[in-house]
Amino acid sequence: MAAKKLNIKDKYRLLTRDLDWEYSYADRKEAFPYEDFEGIKITDWSKWEDPFRLTMDAYWKYQAEKEKKLYAIFDAFAQNNAHLNVSDPRYINAIKIFLTGVSPLEYQAYQGFAHTGRQFGGVGARVACQMQSLDELRHVQTQIHAMSHFNKFFDGFQEYSHMHDRVWYLSVPKSFFNDARTAGPFEFMIAIGFSFEYVLTNLLFVPFMSGAAHNGDMATVTFGFSAQSDEARHMTLGLEVIKFLLEQHEDNVEIVQKWIDKWFWRGSRLLTIVAMMMDYMLPNKVMSWKEAWEVYFEEAGGALFKDLARYGIRMPKYSDIIEKEKEHISHQAWWTFYTHGHAAGFHTWIPTDEELDWLSEKYPETFDKYYRPRWELAKEMEAKGERFYTKGLPQLCTTCQIPMLFTEMDDPTQTSYRDTVYNGDRYHFCSDGCKDIFEDEPEKFVQSWLPVHQIFQGNCGGPDVGDILSDFYHMNVGVDNMDMKGSPDELRWKQWKGVA
Amino acid sequence: MSIEIKTATLEPVRNTFAHIERRFGDKPATRYQEATYDVQSEKYFHYRPLWQPEMELNDPRRTALVMEDWYAFKDPRQFYYGAYVQQRAKMQEVAESNYAFFEKRDLKRLLSDDLQKQVIRYLIPLRHFEHTANLNNMYSSSQGYGTAITQAFLYDGMDRLGIAQYLSRIGLILDGNTGDALGEAKAYWMSEEIWQGVRALCEETTVTKDWFELFIAQDVVMDALMYDLVYNQYDAWLADNGGQDIGMLTEFMQLWNKDNTRWADAVLKTAAAESADNKALLEGWVTSWKAKAVAALKPLAEEMLDAEAMDKAVAALDKRLTKAGLFK
Question: How many other CB atoms sit within 10 Å of the CB of residue B188?
Answer without folding.
Answer: 19
